[in-house]
UniProtKB/TrEMBL annotation:
SUPFAM superfamilies: UDP-Glycosyltransferase/glycogen phosphorylase. One of its GO terms (molecular function) is ADP-heptose-lipopolysaccharide heptosyltransferase activity. GO terms for cellular component: cytosol. One of its GO terms (biological process) is lipopolysaccharide core region biosynthetic process. It comes from uncultured Caulobacter sp. This is CAZy families GT9 protein. PANTHER family: TETRAACYLDISACCHARIDE 4'-KINASE-RELATED. InterPro entries: LPS_LOS_Heptosyltrfase.
């Protein structure tokens, strides 16, 4: 169990990747017992995510279409004061979100340069997606059952 009370999980693209990320979401839920866990995703995954027991809230505007909407999303993430953000997307888009939260970003687990729980692309690249998630979550002390 972890003391974080506000957790954000980011997963934006790919149905297959989304389904594979559910194992990581379960591990996050089990690690953060009692926390309010929000998923930032897209409309494509809203319905399935809302039926998933691992998320308390689903926000489906994770891919803003312009700079103004991106700035608004970053401001909303900042205002939510998440204790930790698990970036399961690990893309240039989510790196932009992390960089936009500087100079005092929340704890962030992913590949974004400078994040608190950092895993490099070189470490992740040779691994299957499930193993990539396990490696990433282990950087934040989250145990993923094998």
């Amino acid at each position: 169990m972890n003391a974080a009370s506000r957790v954000l999980v980011i997963k934006l693209e790919g149905m297959g990747e989304f389904v594979q990320a559910l194992a990581a979401a379960r591990a996050i839920r089990e690690h953060h017992v009692g926390a309010r866990i929000t998923l930032l995703t897209t409309d494509a995954f809203r319905e399935i995510a809302q039926k998933c027991p691992y998320f308390d809230m689903v926000e489906a505007d994770g891919k803003p279409r312009d700079a103004q909407a991106t700035a608004q999303l970053i401001a909303r993430i900042r205002a939510a004061k998440y204790d930790i953000i698990y970036d399961l997307e690990n893309s240039s888009r989510t790196n932009t979100y992390f960089q936009g939260l500087r100079p005092w970003p929340p704890n962030w687990c992913g590949v974004a340069q400078g994040c608190s729980h950092h895993v490099t692309e070189a470490e992740r690249a040779p691994l299957h997606a499930l193993d990539q998630y396990a490696l990433q979550l282990s950087a934040a002390g989250v145990e993923v059952p094998q």
